[in-house]
Amino acid sequence: MFLRNCWYAGAWSHEVEGEALLARKILGERIVFYRKQSGGVAALTDRCSHRFAPLSLGRREGDCLRCMYHGLMFDAGGVCVEEPGRKVPSPRTDIRAYPVVERWKLVWIWMGDPARADPALIPPCPYIDSPEWACIPAYMHFKADYRLVMDNLLDFSHLSFVHANTLGGSNTIAEIRPKIDQLEGGVRITRWYLGEPELAPYLKGIERFRGPVDRWNIYEVALAGCVFEMDSGSAPAGTGAPDGRLAPEAMHFHSIQIVTPEDERNSHYFWMYAHNFDLQNAALTKMLSDRVEGGFVEDRTMIEAQQQVIAETGDSGMAYIHFDNAMSLYRRMLSKAIAQEQEQAAAG
Amino acid sequence: MFLRNCWYAGAWSHEVEGEALLARKILGERIVFYRKQSGGVAALTDRCSHRFAPLSLGRREGDCLRCMYHGLMFDAGGVCVEEPGRKVPSPRTDIRAYPVVERWKLVWIWMGDPARADPALIPPCPYIDSPEWACIPAYMHFKADYRLVMDNLLDFSHLSFVHANTLGGSNTIAEIRPKIDQLEGGVRITRWYLGEPELAPYLKGIERFRGPVDRWNIYEVALAGCVFEMDSGSAPAGTGAPDGRLAPEAMHFHSIQIVTPEDERNSHYFWMYAHNFDLQNAALTKMLSDRVEGGFVEDRTMIEAQQQVIAETGDSGMAYIHFDNAMSLYRRMLSKAIAQEQEQAAAG
Amino acid sequence: MFLRNCWYAGAWSHEVEGEALLARKILGERIVFYRKQSGGVAALTDRCSHRFAPLSLGRREGDCLRCMYHGLMFDAGGVCVEEPGRKVPSPRTDIRAYPVVERWKLVWIWMGDPARADPALIPPCPYIDSPEWACIPAYMHFKADYRLVMDNLLDFSHLSFVHANTLGGSNTIAEIRPKIDQLEGGVRITRWYLGEPELAPYLKGIERFRGPVDRWNIYEVALAGCVFEMDSGSAPAGTGAPDGRLAPEAMHFHSIQIVTPEDERNSHYFWMYAHNFDLQNAALTKMLSDRVEGGFVEDRTMIEAQQQVIAETGDSGMAYIHFDNAMSLYRRMLSKAIAQEQEQAAAG
Questions:
Q1: Taking CB atoms and an 8 Å limit, are A306 and B54 in contact across chains?
Q2: Contact between chains at C318 and A51 (C-beta distance less than 8 A)
Q3: Range(s) of chain C covered by CATH 3.90.380.10
Q4: Using the beta-carbon criterion (under 8 Å), do B51 and A318 form an inter-chain contact?
């Protein structure tokens, strides 16, 4: 059950350079990405129309991709432009091409009706390539239903437990009630932790100040493309952060986390964690990214274990608790959007 | 198809010490065992009521177990005693706790109706912790239906073939007809091999005498908990062992082998092999245990291969031969007991 | 869907020497091959009639095979000749024996009605053990439906792509239209490439001449046993090879490739590649075999990837192109032969 008429992050731009043929399954469909000689990225069904050999074992030729089993060649639009030994390719040899747009260092792919693939719908992720922010584009794979990964993002109470020694550090996170706003196409969550005794463990060694902290996580999670965009940070307590005044030594971050379903039980995870201070310090950028990745590995361990239990026992009968409101709202909105899309598709 | 209203061996006591959270599947159910700070062992469903994360990734706190995903905490009875950020936990957050009793260095768990969990029904295994016998508690895992493991135990003719160079050593074992007695809740098998030319291979290097041997295997196999308890030994031939007189140099053993179904196709195997001579000789105890384990590895190789064949081709059409009487009797009694239990459960 | 009433290559003779018990699945049936002490090879169901233990874990005794679980022994005809502790084996203990004939260094097995197992139907493979040809009997395993492997053999256009740097070397192969003849029980394919600029890459370092080449691949593919037998070679261009005159420096080969279905999705591949020049040069024979194997590894990579795609998406909707005529003809003939066989079997 996936939303189809939206842009999904299919790859980081740097994964599709030179002669690389990137095979990646998205919403259960095998896709091959490659960079055209003329620039830009193409995405084709990773299956030759002839005998179903994967095109990711093929060869890029100019802007085209040749199947290296029997030599059929396809252009970036999926049209079969060459069949060895024949002047004109045989009928019904064209394959599916997917609309693709490269933006924010990401390759976005449209998995639904191509006629509706409007680039204006690509989620804004300006902090990825802003010169005023520094980050490292990163990828992880989760052996879990994308909705379990989204659940995790929609309830930060887990920071007090899963990430007690990394991204969390305090029980306050689990005890606070976040503000939850329903948006047109997603959910906004606002969390403030005022007067925490110290910075979170993942900032140890890169502190810009000591002592009590006002900390925040303010983020939006979009239905379309499962995009999580967060403004977060820590400022010396009482210096006005909740009122929008940021002390010079405050540590301010923007993070993008995008969960692209691989199939019903596996997910791609594209993420970055950007800082806007000490911008030229590449070691800092790397250390911060490594620390955050350590936290995400903790998430993955828990979520994959949860997925295994659910695979065995089903997911009915889960208890609803007060933390679940954002997650529950998002799931309801998602199910409704998917149902609407399927009704529209059925109606023609 | 399992008998449920009985005590199964769930763990050795030493597997559940300190902070250990032992995840083990029994009769297809995921269970987590842990030792309470106040002593005694608890067994809970290894699945948080909230989002189905495994509690075996959790943290023991006193006598309780906390889920380390979102922090719900359960007492040893499965009651949710804490939900972060709420004074009283949400409804329907309790989980299943299993009756557990620790005896004979084993943790026994009751998988059926808790109201019927009478500790008096725990199988007697006094040789495990008797000061007059020495043994090493051991565990193996079999990728096989527990009934195939029981079959193996119920027909010792295999000692002449599977264990020709270890536990067996003579074709006599396969040629003798054991005495088989049907008991109330199981089967007793009596095997005497009189005047065998020498001790079995697994006793090489630890012989207490040389020359012809009167050897015996007398054991009971219970339906409840799949418990095998054996008196066995080797005495100098003609010194009266069959009449109950044990020569001082006789080698006398007691063995416990318990097969706890993990699921339909996997089994836990708890065992020990005790001797009552040379009690202070820990090297002897270890060598004997290692030798017996070598034999059990031979069994496992054969039984797992047999399981694979059956998984592919089914198990109908097996030929019945004269060895099969004990095994066949036990299987019939087991099927009948399971059917009765299921009828009772259906009747309410 | 397999043809059953035919001889399949089950093993190379050298795989069944001494005490070896070769377990191999053929047409989805588990079989154990062994060499009788009196010579000749036996093939039995690899499953004891008693408790379904695999006989390949057993022990050869003379011309018989003993199950090493409980000791039943079977002769080469599958008759149970010994049950320990009983004078006459119990009823219904016999197992299936398969007709087997050893010829051309191969062990041929008949998977259908034994009454029809006529050794005269064994495919002729004289080049395997001819003193005038040198080759190395070789085996590979393919994780693919045997028909996908046959497809590969029936369309050599793939040499220009899969084997561009090994067995192929020129786009001519893909551009030429082969001559295709329907035979009684298979297909003959004739391919001539006249005036190619140079020898194929796999012959680099073992050339017997330089300069332009007349090259050919003339082969028959039989339905029965999936046997591919090829006459191929390269001669100096214009020296009369197409007319049957072979220049002394021509490089002439015979190859056998036999695809025995392991099950619906796996195949055994028995092959050799023989040369008739420089016969005493074992290093040449080895180098040639290694080069060809390198090409077959390329095939395997492609075919196994193709199999994975088909396993996921099915195989309907493949485009038919002009290369496919031989493959398509063979598939039609095979389907028809299988259907006929099944009708006959159903009719009794």
A1: yes
A2: yes
A3: 123-340
A4: yes
Q: Whole-angstrom Cα distance, residue B236 to residue A233?
A: 82
Dist. CA C303–CA B323, nearest whole Å:
49
pLDDT at B212 over 90: yes
pTM (2 d.p.): 0.96
Cα distances (angstroms) measured from residue B6 to each of B113, B117, B119, C84: 9, 7, 10, 37
Residue B328 touches chain C, beta carbons under 8 Å? no
pLDDT digits (tens, 9 = 90+) for C101-130: 999 999 999 999 999 999 999 999 999 999
CATH number of A124-340: 3.90.380.10
SS3 B339: helix
CATH T-level fold of C123-340: Naphthalene 1,2-dioxygenase Alpha Subunit; Chain A, domain 1 (3.90.380)
In chain B, which residues fall in CATH 2.102.10.10?
A: 7-120
- Contact of A73 with chain C, judged by CB distance below 8 Å, is answered with no
What is the greatest pairwise CA distance in chain A?
Answer: 77
For residues B169 and B196, what is the distance between their CA atoms, to the nearest angstrom? Answer: 10
ipTM summary value:
0.96
Neighbour-count burial of C81, counting CB atoms closer than 10 A to its CB (0-12 exposed, 13-18 middle, 19+ buried): middle
What dihedral angle (degrees, nearest 10) is formed by the CA atoms of C12, C13, C19, C24? Answer: 30
C313 at interface of A, judged by CB pairs closer than 8 A = yes
Q: How confident is the model at residue A348 (pLDDT cuts 50, 70, 90)?
A: confident
Are the Cβ atoms of A71 and C320 closer than 8 angstroms? Answer: no
How far does the CA of residue C161 sit from the closest CA of chain A (Å)? Answer: 5
pLDDT at B97 over 90: yes
How many C-beta atoms lie closer than 10 Å to residue C52's C-beta?
25
- The residues near C141 (Cβ < 8 Å, ≥ 6 apart) are C262, C266, C267, C268, C269
- A243-255 pLDDT tens trace: 999 999 999 999 9
**A302/B68 CB distance under 8 A:** yes
Report how far residue A51's alpha carbon sits from residue C305's, in angstroms, rounded to the nearest whole number: 11
What does the DSSP 8-state code read for residue C96? -
pLDDT one-digit tens code per residue, B323-334:
899 999 999 999
DSSP per-residue letters across C125-180: -GGGT-TT-B---EEEEESS-HHHHHHHHH-GGGGGTTTTTTT---THHHHS--EE
DSSP C116: G
Is C87 in the A-facing interface, judged by CB distances under 8 Å? no
Cα(A112)–Cα(A29) distance, integer angstroms: 12
The CATH number that domain A7-120 falls under is: 2.102.10.10
Spatial CA neighbour of B48 closest among B34, B65, B28:
B65
Instruction: Return d(Cα A299, Cα C283) in angstroms, integer.
Output: 57
Measured CA to CA, the distance from residue B154 to residue B246 in angstroms comes to 26
Give me the residue from B160, B306, B322 closest to C51, CB to CB: B306
User: What is the CATH class of C7-118?
Assistant: mainly beta
Instruction: State the Cα–Cα distance between residues A279 and B259, nearest whole angstrom.
Output: 62
CATH 3.90.380.10 domain position(s) in chain B: 124-340
Q: Are B4 and B240 in contact (CB under 8 A)?
A: no
Helix (H) or strand (E) holding B81: strand B80-82
Residues of C in contact with B321 (CB under 8 A): 50, 70, 72, 83, 86, 89-90, 93
